[in-house]
UniProtKB/TrEMBL annotation:
Organism: Lates calcarifer (Barramundi)
Name of this protein: Methyl-CpG binding domain protein 3b
Similarity-based family: Belongs to the TRAFAC class myosin-kinesin ATPase superfamily. Myosin family.
Coiled coil (residue ranges): 920-961
Tagged with keyword Lipid biosynthesis: no
Pfam families xref list: DIL, IQ, Myosin_head
Region of interest: Actin-binding: 588-610
Keyword field contains Coiled coil: yes
All copies of domain Myosin motor, residue ranges: 68-708
Length: 1337
C-alpha cells in the first residue's frame, strides 16, 4: 500500500475502465483517512467520485513525469499493472520503441512493420556493450548471453515465448543472426550460413497460417549453438517438440496446412522441380494424394469398406512412394488381430478406414519432419573440434486458448506452466541474491507458485496418468476418461485448479497460471495414441524408394521420445511409454533439465492487436498477455521487496538538498544513513546495503515530493532576496538619474556663460588681426619692388661676363680637337698593318691544328681521352672561334679605314685612286675566303659536338647497366635482406630506398635479357605484411615507389625525358599486383588503427569528462541504476580512455605516414576513412543510449569533437573531407543543445540537421532526450510530431536507416607521381641492409 500522504491535490491516479482497462485521473482534493470518496477529474474534463471503502481500496498512484517512457519497468517508482501498461503504450506508440526491459525480461511488442533497427551497423553498435548502457533490444539480450558465456564459461539459454503471432520466430531469427555475425569464425566457413539457412527450412515444414498468425510455428524448437574456445561458432544442434501433425489432415476455418504443401504446388511447373528428381517433394506430394483416396463404405451397417482398384489418387500415391497399390488398398480397409494365438484379418468400417488413412498421412509427415531435423543436425554438427560452450535459443509456443481447445492446446499450456514455474523461481532467486550480496536483513518473498497446477497435470493419478491408463484399456473412450477425471479431481478429492463446465459433460476446465481454459475431450485418446497399423508401415518399409525405406526402417532404432507409435497385432509391453503424452513429458523434462543447467535470459513477445495493424495498441489484449507471460508476476515479486535501489553516490547527488551533515561525495553513505530516518519515519520502508540504499514501492515518490517542497521553499527565499535586490537596484538607478539631470543642467548654464566670454574675446582678436594685416601688406609691396630692381641690374652685369668666358673657351677647345685628330690618324695606319700580318700567321697555324684534330677524331681509342680533356678543348675551340670573329671585325674596320683614306687621297691623285681599287678587290676576296672557311669550321665543330654528346650518353648508360655486376647470383638474397630488415633499421632508411635498389636490380636484369630474374625480383617485393603501423607505412611507401618506377619505365608508357630508358620486359601483371599490394597495405594500415580505435571511440568521445564538473551535479532519477541480474563490467577510472587516447592513435598513424613522405592526398583519404569510423561509431552509440541524450552530455561531446577538429586542421587534413565526416555527430550534438519547445525552434532544427536522416532526428534523438536536472525539460510529444511533419516535407537526401554503416569503406585512389630519374650513384645504401655483395662499376 502506498503512503497515504501522497494522495494529495494534483496527484495522478489510475482507475479501472472497461474499454482502456486503466485510465489516468487527477485528484482535485487531498485524501484524508476515513473518507468514502475521492474527487477525481478524468482526461476529458469530467469530474467523478471514486468510492473508497478502506485505504486498501485507494486507486494506484501514477509515476512522476520524469519516469514516463522509462526503458526498464522495474525502475518505476510505483510498480503495478496500470503503470506497466501505460509505460509500454508510451514507448510503443509515442517513441516507436518495441523493446522494454522488465528486470531480466525483455518485453518485445510486435510492430507488424519493417523497422531499420536490425542491420549490421546495429549489431556492431551493440557488440561489446554493457546491457545497462544501451537501449533495450533483442541484440542486447544476445550480447549479454554471449559475453556471459565467454566470461564465465557457462552455457546460456535464451527463452523466447509469447502468443502465436507475437513475433517469437522473428526474434529467434534475429538472435541467431546476431550470434552468426558476432561469433563468426576467423576463416570463412559455412557453419554460420547453415545456422541461418536452417530457419526457412524449418519454417516451411513446421509453420502454417492460423487465425492469429500468418506464419505460426506449430512445433517447439530449441537450437543449441556451439562455440569454440575463441568464441566462434563451430556447430549447432536442434531439438523439436510436439509437431501438430493433425494439421496435415484437418485445418480449422480460415487456417491453412503447412507452408511446404503450398510451396510445392506453386513450384510444380518449374523445370528445376522436374529435373532434380528429389525424393522429399515426392513424399510430400504422396501425402497430399493420400488425402484424396476415396474410401467407400459397404455392408448393411457400413461395417466394412473398400477402395476402387482404379482409384487415381491411390495409384499416384503408390507410384510416388514406390509401394504396391493393391496391398496398400487392402490394409487401409482391413486390420490384423491376434486371437488365441491365431492371426485374423478383420475388415474396418468406413470411418475406421478414414481414420487409418489420416493416421498414415500424419505418420508419414511426422517421419519426414524428424528425418529433416536429423539431416539439418548432421549438417550443423561441429567439424572443427569440440564445443566448449553453447547458447540455446528456445522458440516455443506460447500459452494458447481458443474457442475449442483440444489435446495440442493442453500439451502447449502444460509446457508453458513448466516454463513459468522455472521463470518464477529464477526471478525469485535473482532477487534474493541481490539482497544477500548487499547483506540485507530480508524475509522470504512469497510468489505465486503453480506447482499445484503442474501436479494436477503430471502428478500421480493426474490428467496424463489417467489418459495413458485409458489408452491402455481395450474399449477406452474419451467419455470414460472424462468421468474418471470428474471422479478423481472433482468428486473424490476436489482440486483447486480443476473444474467442470456447467453445460457440458465432455469437457473440463483447468485454472492455469495465465488464464482459465476449457478443454473439449473429443479426440484426446486418438491424438495421445497416434497409432499407425504395423501392416501399413511394413508396406512402406519395403518401398522401392531408398528415402521412404530409410524413413520407416529407422523407426526400429528411434528413442522413446520419438513421435508416434506403431500398433501390431500383439500389444507391445509397456505400450504407455510410446504415447504422445508420455513422450512429450519426457522431452519437456529434458528441456527443463537443460534450461536449469544454463543461465537463462528471457524474451516475452507481445501481440499488440489481433488485426495485425502496424503500431496499433489494444490494451485489453496486451494486459491479457502480460498476465499470461509472467511480466506482471516479475513486477509483483520486485514490488514485494525493495524495487527502488540507489547507490549512495547517486542518492546523494539527487537528494543533496534533503541531506544534512557533511556535504561531500566521500561521506555520502554516512550522510544518507544519518538523514533518511528523519525523512522516512517507518524504518521498514527502506534498508541500507553495502553499496546501495533500498526503498519499497512509493518511497521514491515521497522523497521526490519532499525534494520538490524543499526546492519550492528555497525558491521562495531566493525570490524574496532577488526582489529586494531588484528594488535596491531600481532606487539606485533613480538616484543616479536625478543626480545626472542636475549635473547636466548646471553644465548647460556654465557652458552658456563660457560661450559669451568666448565671443567677446574673439571680436577683439579679429579687430587686432585685421589692422595688422593692412600694415603688413603695404610693407611687403615696397620690399618686393626694391628686390626686383636689384635683380635686373645684377643680371645684366653677369651676362656680360659670361659671354667673354664662352668665346675664350671655344678657341682653346678647337685647337685641342685638331691636334688629337692628327695623332690618331697616324696611329691607325700603323696598327692596321700589324693586325693584318698577325691574321695571316695565325690562319696558317689554325689550318695545321685542324688537320691534326681531324686525324685524332677518327680514332676510337681517343674517345676515352676526349672524355678527359673535352672540356678544355671545347673552351679552346670557343676561344678560337671568338678570335676568328674578332679578326674578321678588325679586318672590316681596317678595310673601311683604308677606303676612307683612299677617298681622302683621291682628290689629290689619280694614281692613288687606282691603287685603292686594287687594294679593295684584294681585301674583298680575302674576306670572302676567310668567311667561307670560318663557316665550314663552324659546321664541323657543331657536328663534332653532337657526336661527343651522343657518345657521352651511351657511355653513361653502359656504365649504369654494368654498375651491379654480381646481382645474378644474389637475387633471392636481395629480396630477403630488404624484406626482413629490422624495425629500427628500416625506419632510419630514406623513404623509398628499398624500392630504388630493387628497381635498379630489375633494370640490370632486364638489360641483360634475363626476364625471369626481373620478375622474381618484383615478386620478392609483393610479400611483406606487418601488424605495426610504422612498418606497414614503410612497405606501403616502397610498394608505391616501385609501382611508379615500373610504370614510368614501362615499354607501353610514353617517355617524358630523353634520359629515361624503357624496359624491354613487359611487367604489366606485376604492376597490377603491386597496385593490389598498395591497396592491401593501405587497408592493413587502416585496419591496425581501426582495431586500436574501436574499443576507445565511445568511451573517449561520449563518456570521458573532458570538461570536469559539467555533468557531475546533474543526475537523472534512477538513470544510472543497473538492471537486475546484469553484471556490469567495471573499468578503472585511471584506465578510462579519453580524447588524448584517440589523438595519440591518430598521431601515431600521421607520424608514420609523414616519416615515409607518402602523398598528402593519400593521407587525407586515410584520415577521411578513420574520422568516418569515429563519427559513425560515436553517433550509433549516441542514438542507442538514453543516458547520453541530454544537454550537459552534448556539451561534453561537442568539446571532444572540437579537439578532434582542431587536431585535423593543425595538420592540414581538413581538405580531404575528414572534418566533413564529423558533421552528422556535430549536428546530433547541436540537436541536444538546441531549444526544443516552439515551432520556430522545430524549423531551425530541421534546417540545421541536414546530415541526419529523419529516423535519427525524430525517432531517436528527440525521443531519447532525457533531462538530467530540474532546469531542463523533456521533449513534448507535440514538438516531436511537429518535427516529424517538417522532416516529411523536406527533400531528404540522407538514407532512411537509423544507424550509420560503420563498415562502409571509401574507395582509395593512389596518385601517379613519376619519380626523378634514378641513378645508382645517387643511392646511399647503409650497412644495416647487409647487401654489401652489391657493388657499383
Amino acid at each position: 500500500m502506498a503512503t497515504l500522504e501522497l494522495y494529495s491535490k494534483g496527484e495522478s491516479v489510475w482507475i479501472p475502465d472497461p474499454g482502456a482497462v486503466w485510465v489516468s485521473a487527477q485528484l482535485l482534493q487531498d485524501y484524508s483517512p476515513g473518507e468514502k470518496h475521492l474527487l477525481l477529474q478524468l482526461p476529458n474534463g469530467e469530474e467523478v467520485h471514486y468510492p473508497v471503502g478502506s485505504p486498501s481500496d485507494l486507486p494506484p498512484l501514477g509515476n512522476p513525469d520524469i519516469l514516463e517512457g522509462e526503458n526498464d519497468l522495474t525502475a518505476l517508482s510505483f510498480l503495478h499493472e496500470p503503470a506497466v501498461l501505460h509505460n509500454l503504450r508510451v514507448r510503443f506508440l509515442d517513441y516507436s520503441s518495441i523493446y522494454t526491459y522488465c528486470g531480466i525480461v525483455l518485453v518485445a511488442i510486435n510492430p507488424y512493420d519493417q523497422l531499420p533497427i536490425y542491420g549490421e551497423e546495429v549489431i556492431d553498435a551493440y557488440s561489446g556493450q554493457d546491457m545497462a548502457d544501451m537501449e533495450p533490444h533483442i541484440f542486447s539480450v544476445a550480447e549479454e548471453a554471449y559475453r556471459t558465456m565467454t566470461r564465465e564459461e557457462k552455457n546460456q539459454s535464451i527463452i523466447i515465448s509469447g502468443e502465436s503471432g507475437s513475433g517469437k520466430t522473428v526474434s529467434a531469427k534475429f538472435t541467431m543472426r546476431y550470434f552468426a555475425v558476432v561469433g563468426g569464425a576467423a576463416q570463412q566457413t559455412s557453419v554460420e550460413e547453415r545456422v541461418l539457412a536452417s530457419n526457412p527450412i524449418m519454417e516451411s515444414i513446421g509453420n502454417a497460417k492460423t487465425t492469429r498468425n500468418d506464419n505460426s510455428s506449430r512445433f517447439g524448437k530449441y537450437i543449441e549453438i556451439g562455440f569454440g574456445r575463441k568464441g566462434d561458432i563451430i556447430g549447432a544442434n536442434m531439438r523439436t517438440y510436439l509437431l501438430e501433425k493433425s494439421r496435415v489432415v484437418f485445418q480449422a476455418s480460415a487456417e491453412r496446412n503447412y507452408h511446404i504443401f503450398y510451396q510445392l504446388c506453386a513450384s510444380r511447373e518449374l523445370p528445376e522441380m522436374r529435373s532434380l528428381k528429389l525424393d522429399a517433394p515426392e513424399i510430400l506430394s504422396a501425402v497430399l494424394h493420400l488425402g484424396n483416396v476415396n474410401i467407400q463404405a459397404s455392408g448393411r451397417s457400413s461395417d466394412w469398406s473398400y477402395i476402387d482398384a482404379d482409384d487415381r489418387s491411390l495409384a499416384v500415391f503408390s507410384k510416388l512412394l514406390g509401394v504396391e497399390g493393391p496391398q496398400m488398398a487392402h490394409w487401409l480397409c482391413h486390420r490384423r488381430l491376434a486371437v488365441g494365438g491365431e492371426m485374423l484379418v478383420k475388415p474396418m468400417s468406413g470411418q475406421q478406414a478414414v481414420e487409418a488413412r489420416d493416421a498414415l498421412a500424419k505418420h508419414i509427415y511426422g517421419q519426414l519432419f524428424t528425418w529433416t531435423v536429423q539431416r539439418l543436425n548432421s549438417a550443423l554438427r561441429s567439424q572443427r573440434g569440440q564445443t566448449k560452450s553453447f547458447i540455446g535459443v528456445l522458440d516455443i509456443y506460447g500459452f494458447e486458448t481458443f474457442d475449442r481447445n483440444s489435446f495440442e492446446q493442453f500439451c502447449i499450456n502444460y509446457a508453458n506452466e513448466k516454463l513459468q514455474q522455472q521463470f518464477n523461481r529464477h526471478v525469485f532467486h535473482l532477487e534474493q541474491e541481490e539482497y544477500v550480496r548487499e547483506e540485507l536483513a530480508w524475509s522470504r518473498i512469497e510468489f505465486s507458485d503453480n506447482q499445484q497446477c503442474i501436479n494436477l497435470i503430471e502428478g500421480q493419478l493426474g490428467l496424463f496418468d489417467l489418459l495413458d491408463e485409458e489408452c491402455r484399456m481395450p474399449k477406452g473412450s474419451d467419455d470414460s476418461w472424462v468421468r474418471k477425471l470428474y471422479n478423481q479431481h472433482l468428486t473424490g478429492k476436489p482440486h483447486p485448479h480443476f473444474q467442470k463446465p456447467r453445460m457440458s459433460n465432455s469437457a473440463f476446465i483447468i485454472l492455469h497460471f495465465a488464464d482459465t481454459v476449457q478443454y473439449e475431450c473429443d479426440g484426446f485418446l486418438d491424438k495421445n495414441r497416434d497409432t499407425v497399423f504395423e501392416e501399413l508401415v511394413n508396406i512402406l518399409k519395403a518401398s522401392q524408394s531408398e528415402l521412404v525405406a530409410e524413413l520407416f526402417q529407422q523407426q526400429e532404432n528411434v528413442s522413446p521420445v520419438a513421435n508416434g507409435s506403431v500398433r501390431s497385432g500383439k500389444r507391445a509391453t509397456r505400450e504407455h511409454k510410446l504415447t504422445v503424452g508420455f513422450q512429450f513429458r519426457q522431452s519437456l523434462q529434458m528441456l527443463m533439465d537443460t534450461l536449469n543447467s544454463t543461465t537463462p535470459h528471457y524474451v516475452r513477445c507481445i501481440k499488440p492487436n489481433d488485426l495485425k495493424e502496424p503500431f496499433m495498441f489494444d490494451p485489453k489484449r496486451t494486459v491479457q498477455q502480460l498476465r499470461a507471460c509472467g511480466v506482471l508476476e516479475t513486477i509483483r515479486i520486485s514490488a514485494a521487496g525493495y524495487p527502488s535501489r540507489w547507490t549512495y553516490e547517486e542518492f546523494f547527488s539527487r537528494y543533496r538538498v534533503l541531506l544534512r551533515g557533511p556535504q561531500s561525495q566521500e561521506q555520502a553513505q554516512a550522510s544518507c544513513r544519518w538523514t533518511l530516518p528523519q525523512l522516512i519515519s517507518d524504518p521498514d520502508q527502506y534498508c541500507f546495503g553495502k553499496t546501495k540504499v533500498f526503498f519499497r514501492a512509493g518511497q521514491v515518490a515521497l522523497l521526490e515530493r519532499l525534494r520538490a517542497e524543499r526546492l519550492r521553499t528555497a525558491a521562495v527565499i531566493i525570490q524574496s532576496r532577488v526582489r529586494g535586490w531588484l528594488s535596491r537596484i531600481r532606487y539606485t538607478r533613480i538616484l543616479w538619474a536625478t543626480v545626472t539631470i542636475q549635473r547636466y543642467c548646471r553644465g548647460a548654464l556654465a557652458r552658456r556663460l563660457a560661450l559669451t566670454l568666448r565671443y567677446t574675446k574673439a571680436a577683439l582678436v579679429i579687430q587686432k588681426t585685421y589692422r595688422m594685416m593692412v600694415v603688413r601688406q603695404l610693407f611687403l609691396m615696397i620690399r618686393q619692388a626694391t628686390i626686383t630692381i636689384q635683380a635686373f641690374t645684377r643680371g645684366t652685369l653677369a651676362r656680360h661676363r659670361y659671354r667673354l668666358m664662352v668665346a675664350e673657351r671655344a678657341a682653346v677647345l678647337l685647337q685641342a680637337r685638331v691636334r688629337g685628330w692628327l695623332a690618331r690618324r697616324a696611329y691607325r695606319r700603323v696598327r692596321a698593318a700589324v693586325v693584318f700580318m698577325q691574321c695571316c700567321v695565325r690562319r696558317r697555324a689554325a689550318r695545321r691544328e685542324l688537320l691534326k684534330l681531324k686525324t685524332e677524331a677518327r680514332s676510337v681509342e681517343r674517345y676515352r681521352e676526349l672524355n678527359k680533356g673535352m672540356e678544355v678543348k671545347l673552351m679552346q675551340l670557343q676561344l678560337r672561334a671568338d678570335q676568328e670573329v674578332a679578326f674578321s671585325l678588325s679586318f672590316c674596320f681596317f678595310f673601311h679605314s683604308h677606303l676612307y683614306l683612299m677617298h681622302r687621297l683621291s682628290s689629290s691623285s689619280v694614281c692613288g685612286h687606282v691603287c685603292a681599287e686594287r687594294v679593295s678587290q684584294a681585301v674583298s676576296q680575302a674576306a670572302k675566303a676567310l668567311r667561307t672557311e670560318l663557316d665550314e669550321e663552324r659546321r664541323k665543330y657543331q657536328g663534332l659536338l653532337r657526336e661527343f654528346t651522343r657518345l657521352e650518353q651511351r657511355y653513361d648508360n653502359l656504365r649504369e647497366m654494368s654498375l651491379l655486376t654480381e646481382v645474378h647470383n644474389h637475387t633471392k638474397a636481395i629480396g630477403c635482406k630488404l624484406m626482413n630488415v629490422r624495425v629500427d633499421s628500416a625506419l632510419s632508411l630514406p623513404p623509398g630506398l628499398p624500392a630504388g635498389v630493387i628497381f635498379l636490380c630489375v633494370r640490370q636484369a632486364d638489360c641483360s635479357g634475363d626476364q625471369t630474374r626481373a620478375r622474381s625480383l618484383c615478386s620478392a617485393a609483393v610479400t611483406k605484411h606487418s601488424s605495426d603501423v610504422d612498418m606497414t607505412a614503410l612497405w606501403l611507401k616502397n610498394a608505391c615507389v616501385l609501382h611508379d618506377l615500373l610504370t614510368q619505365h614501362s615499354p607501353k608508357q610514353t617517355l617524358e625525358s630523353d634520359e629515361l630508358v624503357p624496359l624491354t620486359t613487359d611487367l604489366s601483371d606485376l604492376i597490377r599486383a603491386l597496385s593490389d599490394l598498395c591497396i592491401q597495405g593501405y587497408q592493413q594500415l587502416l585496419s591496425i588503427t581501426e582495431t586500436r580505435l574501436q574499443n576507445i571511440i565511445v568511451a573517449a568521445l561520449l563518456e570521458s569528462e573532458t570538461i570536469p564538473g559539467l555533468s557531475g551535479t546533474a543526475v537523472k532519477l534512477v538513470m544510472s541504476r543497473k538492471r537486475a541480474g546484469s553484471d556490469p563490467r567495471t573499468v578503472a577510472s585511471g584506465d578510462a580512455p579519453t580524447m588524448a587516447s584517440v589523438l595519440r592513435e591518430l598521431g601515431a598513424l600521421h607520424t608514420a605516414l609523414s616519416r615515409q613522405d607518402l602523398p598528402s592526398t593519400l593521407m587525407e583519404q586515410a584520415f577521411h576513412q578513420l574520422t568516418y569510423l569515429i563519427s559513425a561509431s560515436a553517433l550509433n552509440s549516441l542514438l542507442l543510449r538514453k543516458d547520453m541524450c541530454c544537454w550537459s552530455r552534448g556539451m561534453q561531446i561537442r568539446y571532444n569533437v572540437s579537439l578532434l577538429e582542431e587536431w585535423l586542421r593543425s595538420r592540414g587534413l581538413q581538405t580531404g573531407g575528414a572534418v566533413a565526416t564529423l558533421e552528422p555527430l556535430i549536428q546530433a550534438v547541436q540537436l541536444l543543445q538546441a531549444g526544443k519547445k516552439t515551432e520556430a525552434e522545430a524549423q531551425a532544427l530541421v534546417q540545421t540537421c541536414t546530415a541526419l536522416s529523419s529516423q535519427q532526428v525524430g525517432l531517436s534523438i528527440l525521443t531519447l532526450y532525457t533531462p538530467h536536472s530540474d532546469l531542463d525539460e523533456r521533449v513534448t510529444l507535440n514538438f516531436i510530431r511537429t518535427v516529424q511533419g517538417l522532416l516529411k516535407g523536406r527533400s531528404d537526401c540522407q538514407p532512411p536507416q537509423l544507424l550509420m554503416d560503420v563498415r562502409r569503406v571509401f574507395p582509395v585512389t593512389f596518385p601517379y607521381l613519376p619519380p626523378a630519374v634514378l641513378h645508382a650513384e645517387q643511392l646511399v645504401i647503409p650497412d644495416s641492409l647487409k647487401i654489401s655483395f652489391l657493388r657499383r662499376v
